[in-house]
Amino acid sequence: MTEKSLSIELSHINSDGEAHMVDVGDKTVSDRQATAQGCIGMSAVAFDLLEAGNHKKGDVLSVARIAGIMAAKRTAELIPLCHTLPLSKVEVLFELNAEKHQVVCQSTVRCNARTGVEMEALTAVQIALLTIYDMCKAVDKTMVIDGVRLLSKTGGKSGDWSSALSGQ
Predict the structure, then answer these.
(1) The CATH number of the domain where 122 resides is what?
(2) How far from 156 is each of 56, 75, 109, 141, CA to CA, in Å?
(3) Residue-wise over 67-94: b if at least 16 C-beta within 10 A, else e?
(4) Which of 1, 35, 74, 109 minimizes the number of CB atoms within 10 Å of its CB?
């Protein structure tokens, strides 16, 4: 660690080193949006069944989309120090990559609030991908969830951020 990184304070740790929920009461309400992405790789057999919509459990991507939306709405129940937010948009999109036998999931979450929606976007992606795993595991237990990350966020005191602009 560098000297600079040691001087950064974690907002969820109080002066006594204890975990606490950040008080956002004095923050300005603003429009906030975050986009996250991740992927799941699988065998050719599992991918072909998913792509054709022939899995025995049903339409995998539709169920995963609903699971991702539900997860974003319940993030504060899953991650202890997250605030409950009035979400105005949760979008979960999938892109199929037949060459790599991968499903790429991207979620965009939006709200007008005092704190951001990065955790909600990340949670939507993770749960959507886990749902795909759950629905396809009878065919392929070797699936790998990978590359889950924040792509961008807008709004709030810290302003806009994009992984493309930061070189990540």
Answers:
(1) 3.30.70.640
(2) 44, 19, 14, 41
(3) bbbbbbbebbeeeeebeebebeebbbeb
(4) 1
Higher pLDDT, residue 159 or 97: 97
pLDDT at 26: 66
Structural domain includes residue 164: no
Task: Give the pLDDT confidence of 69-96 residue by residue, as tens digits.
Answer: 999 999 999 988 888 999 999 999 999 9
CA dihedral 35, 40, 41, 46 (to 10 degrees): -130
pTM: 0.86
Residue 16 maps to a domain: no
Show the domain range for 109: 27-154
CA atoms within 13 A on the CB side of 108: 8
134 given a catalytic annotation: yes
Q: Which residues contact 105 (CB under 8 A, 6 or more apart)?
A: 37, 38, 39, 40, 64, 68, 92, 93, 94, 125, 128, 129, 132
- 142: exposed, middle or buried (C-beta count within 10 Å: 0-12, 13-18, 19+)? exposed
**Residue 119 falls within a domain, yes or no?**
yes
Q: How many domains does the chain have?
A: 1
